[in-house]
Amino acid sequence: MEKVAEILAEVSAEVVEPRFRALADGEVMEKAPGDLVTIADREAEVIISRRLRELLPVPVVGEEAVAADPSLARALVEEPAVWLVDPVDGTSNFVAGRPDFAVMASLVRAGQAVAAWIWQPMSQTAYSAELGAGAWRDGHRLVRRPTDDAPEKWRGTLKSRYLDPAEHHRMLTSARVFGQVSGGLRSAGMEYPLIAEGEQEFILYWRTLPWDHAPGSLLITESGGVSARLSGSPYRPDPPGGEDGLLVAADPAVWEHTREILLGR
Description:
This protein is α+β, with helices and mostly antiparallel strands. 35% of the residues lie in helices and 26% in strands. It folds into two domains: 2-141, Fructose-1,6-Bisphosphatase, subunit A, domain 1 (Fructose-1,6-Bisphosphatase, Chain A, domain 1), CATH 3.30.540; 151-263, D-Maltodextrin-Binding Protein, domain 2. The longest helix has 17 residues, at 39-55.
């Protein structure tokens, strides 16, 4: 666990952080309309992938590699073990000079995340989780305090960019019962820890790319929370294009009540 955390922090210091607010012309590209990638994303993924394979020689499913060859993501369902890598989670923030970005990795065995790491470079904060062993921030175990029963005191995030407009409007209307609802930080690696740390009670995601959600989902479940599809099935890091919708919450009661409020069921 410690070695992977060291890899993420070292690669971040080597190729990501020096380019923060210092990207040169030609170092920011579009890999799809509205979807940015930088030289830092690509270089960091190559180095992290190589070093992870030195620890455990299994396939690496990296965000930028899959952008170039989508078939690589099939390893998540075809291989017994896979590394997942998100070299810069929150690239749009990174490009804009906003500090809300992270470097993430997870280890998936038999289709389930069994270990996860999130490095937040601007605060030099490390989160990790291991299936059945707990969740940690900088070596201190994370255990959420009990949540208040009143939804009007809950804080949450609705990631509604990919929702149907009518459904988006209906959910926003339903969400008025909550104390505070935001649109998020544009980085899963910054958002998931807010629940584990007790700063928010829920997040609703719609599109769920595996490199974005495997690390945070394990962090949440190992700190006592829930990360599950809207059907109620536990989150699993499937290849892109699978089931949409993911509700993450501080505990099972919050998850059930939030789903009832947002979805009417």
